[in-house]
């Protein structure tokens, strides 16, 4: 019978308790790190390591927490979108494109080379390359927002580069899955995936923005509700879900939704009203990243060495690629963009999971990729802050 | 390995799509009902019937939607708590207590009598009584908030009576489960359950409120975050989870949390900041109620007749009990309280599920209780609005 509630009342009680513990832990980690003048999100990730299976095991990662984490990064990027104008993004288009493409090519080549060097099969090597490509713009965005640095040219360049990065990563993961599963490279499928992803971004980002520029009233039909919050949130969820359904990151859809809505006249009220959603959900995203740490996987010294090597390769190749692409912003600006692209965050963990499912990664490589994703995520925020606290970067496009 | 994300990216994409569909459907139902000047929540429940398995089956009721629905009613009652002062509640204490107790005794007696009249066993008869007791204060609160009638004496009386009602219902469900499973009535367990529930409400409601009256600074430590939102929401989630863990409704904890926080000086900013959470989550609660409708269960005329009989009994006994208890508010005030206590909503559905799990209800009786819960929920909002639109009720405590 379709009637029966799928969860017993006691299960719902347990899930409420999990949400409470996660939010409380995040807040405590956040406050401690603010007081020692470190990036709050690092405190939240460490809180996740502590309450998660790695240390106390107070909370298990189930469906609800996973969805809350996803909504966390979705509302984070929605917020970033609300602070971004299409015109600002187009202005840094060339730098962002270059940084995005070079920031994909170098890590991919590095990962593939490392894979072959380790004597792995083609599927595994290609997957290793794809895993090194992933960039978590959510982490960088959170740091930039915390520093109030979202309106800098470098920040726009990072956002634009992250979109290019995500599209190429999507194609590469598709290619890698194909090779791991069938042993063959299928260029036609890769082209179709690329065309759909680019089409979505251009159609929604440019088309949607122009539409709302021309007709902001679409979100403010006089009798349609008291506030634009729910229409805005519905558009965000719809585009995030659509992006995710075609295999892109949901956050790309959320970001484009925010950018569209930013064009309407009533931008300010919607920012005020989205703020509590933006305060409520993102802590789940950061804590859940920490919960995915499994310290037991790193008791073997060989694994530790591999982790350090892969992490170093991930940092150097991504930084070098993005830096090269962004060098028209001057050395400091390029360094800012390069560092901003380094965190692999949840995207690296997702690619690792796909690789595990496709049989390309064994448990050790999987643990190494997850470890690398979290290490790059923990390293970047303090560095980025220091770079921003130094003199304003020289040179602008 | 504890690492592996529990959900594939495609599953997360599907859940995002479900959330989008539910929110969009709720908004459409809401707007249509506002335009035809009917209570918006009825439109949202009907939207749930349409997108749910009963009609189009666009969305399945899984873990995430269940948790979102629960958070919906939790934030709804948190909001109601924020608009309630303990002193106002204590002022209507006598009326609320009488309305609560009589509003439990009559439906319980009616249900048990009906059960024995139908030739059911003791366990089933007692469960039927317990199922008729359940009151969904969430539904009534939503209607009162929509009408801006939350500060009326009758509304306070309904809130107080609902707390009494929920405590007694908890005890009755415990007793009924004991009888259904062991065939015996265990007075000691019943007393312990009662003592814990009353203790929680008094300790948190009165003690917590006095604490925050004396030290509002507890929520505003200067360096502790920019806004009181997250501490407030954390307290709400914590008390909701705690109430749920001891078997009370989570909403009782959420309501008490709101009432505590309302005593702190910065009540107004927190209301502003909770507003978007209150706009975001409750639609899931109403849509999910509608999704639990299974029209197929009512193709049998005998079942339909039973549904009508049980619904009539549920309406008449609850109205009469609460009316008798509240008659010091004058006939109109008492009628308002009586009608306000009628909706069974999600609480009736939960009791029905427990009865099904305990073996006290067969599928037909289960479907009938769920149907009764939804019918009482759909009937009340228009009636309550009409009562409120009529002259202000005469007489006050």
Automatic annotation (TrEMBL), chains A, B:
PANTHER family: NAPA-TYPE SODIUM/HYDROGEN ANTIPORTER, SODIUM ION_PROTON EXCHANGER (EUROFUNG). Keywords: Antiport, Ion transport, Membrane, Sodium, Sodium transport, Transmembrane, Transmembrane helix, Transport. It comes from the Bacteria. The keyword Transport applies. Its main location: membrane. It is a multi-pass membrane protein. It is found in: Membrane. Residues 23-385 form the Cation/H+ exchanger transmembrane domain. Pfam families: Na_H_Exchanger. This is Cation:proton antiporter. It comes from Svornostia abyssi.
């Amino acid at each position: 019978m379709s009637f029966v509630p799928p969860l017993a009342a006691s299960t719902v009680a347990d899930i409420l308790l999990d949400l409470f513990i996660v939010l409380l832990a995040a807040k405590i980690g956040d406050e401690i790190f603010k007081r020692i003048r470190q990036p709050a999100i690092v405190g939240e990730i460490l809180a996740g390591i502590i309450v998660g299976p790695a240390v106390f095991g107070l909370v298990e990662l189930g469906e609800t927490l996973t969805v809350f984490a996803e909504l966390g990064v979705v509302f984070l990027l929605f917020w970033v979108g609300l602070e971004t104008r299409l015109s600002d993004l187009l202005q840094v288009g060339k730098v962002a494109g270059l940084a995005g493409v070079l920031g994909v090519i170098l890590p991919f080549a590095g990962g593939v080379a490392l894979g072959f060097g380790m004597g792995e099969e083609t599927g595994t090597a290609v997957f290793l390359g794809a895993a090194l490509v992933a960039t978590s713009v959510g982490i960088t965005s959170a740091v930039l927002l915390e520093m109030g640095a979202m309106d800098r040219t470098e920040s726009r360049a990072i956002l634009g580069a992250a979109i290019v990065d995500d599209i190429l990563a999507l194609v590469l993961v598709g290619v890698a899955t194909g090779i791991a599963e069938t042993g063959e490279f299928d260029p036609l499928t890769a082209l179709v995936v690329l065309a759909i992803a680019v089409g979505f971004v251009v159609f929604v980002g440019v088309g949607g923005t122009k539409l709302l520029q021309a007709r902001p009233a679409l979100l403010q039909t006089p009798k349609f509700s008291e506030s634009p919050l729910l229409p805005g949130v519905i558009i965000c969820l719809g585009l995030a879900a659509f992006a995710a359904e075609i295999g892109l990151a949901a956050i790309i859809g959320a970001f484009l939704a925010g950018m569209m809505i930013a064009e309407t006249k009533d931008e300010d009220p919607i920012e005020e009203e989205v703020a509590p959603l933006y305060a409520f959900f993102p802590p789940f995203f950061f804590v859940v990243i920490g919960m995915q740490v499994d310290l037991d996987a790193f008791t073997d010294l060989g694994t530790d060495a591999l982790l350090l090597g892969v992490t170093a390769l991930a940092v150097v190749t991504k930084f070098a690629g993005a830096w090269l692409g962004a060098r028209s912003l001057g050395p400091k600006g390029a360094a800012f963009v390069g560092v901003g692209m380094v965190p692999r965050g949840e995207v690296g963990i997702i690619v690792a999971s796909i690789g595990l499912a496709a049989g390309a990664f064994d448990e050790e490589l999987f643990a190494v990729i997850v470890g690398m994703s979290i290490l790059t995520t923990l390293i970047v925020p303090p560095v980025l802050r220091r770079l921003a606290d130094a003199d304003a970067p020289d040179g602008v496009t």
